[in-house]
Specification:
Helix content is 29%, strand content 24%. It contains 8 helices and 13 strands. The strands form 3 sheets. A 5-stranded parallel β-sheet has the order 3-2-4-1-5, with helices on both faces. It has a 5-stranded mixed β-sheet with strand order 7-8-11-9-10, sandwiched between helices. Helix 3 packs across helix 4 and helix 6 packs parallel to helix 7. The longest helix is centred in the middle third of the chain and has 14 residues. The radius of gyration is 20 Å and the shape is elongated.
């Protein structure tokens, strides 16, 4: 039996993949993932057996990786961002339990979309924050809206993933309306598409601007809160250090 590596490739830029992930990819004969992710790391896996499945076939993808591992191959099952954050880490463990299987595996962490996009925008996650996926394929729309309401009421800086698709155009605006009672219209927000990938786009906007904009599935939105400021055209969520710092001319 081989070993299964759940490899996180971060946003996809080769220099943002951890050395541990690099080593796993080098060691493995078989690489399994969505074709988009395989393409992003193609220079690292050109001489490997590559197996791709389309969006929506995540269970099949995981089962293939497990099967190849049980057949004696070392396998890398790749996820963008972090495999344990909206990735295939959880599903893999569930499939092993459901099928009463035991294999040798390792989950290799990576840079999440939230971290990557925040670094481009400045430091909007410098204080408490949460993430919310707007995909309603696995989570009911009602639940997404309820979570958005509590996120807004709690005053959290919020990272919105899977923002808008061709079949799901209106939900993002419904989610934003749940935040509206708890956000000033002028609250600074950030929009990033294709973070650290070809075609990267970044925009700073106010909360009220978001209602008139269009997005896609490769876009991440970071909603600021009442502690978020624009500093040299970058988002910074203040943690309070400046309020506690002694005056510059004070003596100890």
């Amino acid at each position: 039996m081989g070993k299964l590596y759940l490899v996180s490739i971060g946003p996809g830029a080769l220099d943002m993949i951890t050395p541990r992930a690099h080593k796993a990819l080098e060691k493995c004969k078989v690489i399994v993932g969505h074709q988009l992710y395989l393409d992003l790391i193609q220079t690292l896996i050109q001489n490997k057996i590559q197996i791709a499945t389309p969006w929506g076939d995540e269970i099949e993808r995981v089962d293939i990786a497990i099967s190849k591992t049980m057949g004696g191959s070392d396998v890398s099952l790749i996820s963008s961002g972090d495999a344990g954050v909206y990735g295939l880490g959880g599903l893999t463990l569930e499939r092993l339990e459901e099928n009463n299987l035991q294999i040798d595996y390792e989950i290799i962490p990576g840079i999440t979309s939230a971290n990557a996009c925040a670094s481009i925008l400045g430091a909007p996650l410098a204080h408490d924050f949460l993430t919310l996926s707007l995909s309603d394929l696995l989570v009911p729309k009602k639940t997404i809206l309820e979570r958005a309401k509590f996120a807004g009421k709690g005053g959290f800086v919020s990272v919105l993933h899977n923002v808008q698709s061709s079949k799901r155009k209106k939900l993002v605006y419904e989610v934003l309306r749940e935040f509206k009672p708890y956000r000033s219209p002028r609250t600074p927000c950030g929009i990033v598409s294709n973070a650290f990938r070809l075609g990267e786009k970044t925009q700073i906007a106010t909360f009220e601007d978001l209602f008139s904009l269009q997005f896609d599935m490769l876009t991440t939105i970071i909603l600021g809160n009442d502690a978020t400021r624009l500093v040299q055209n970058k988002l910074v969520t203040q943690r309070g250090y400046s309020f506690n710092a002694p005056p510059k001319n004070s003596s100890k």
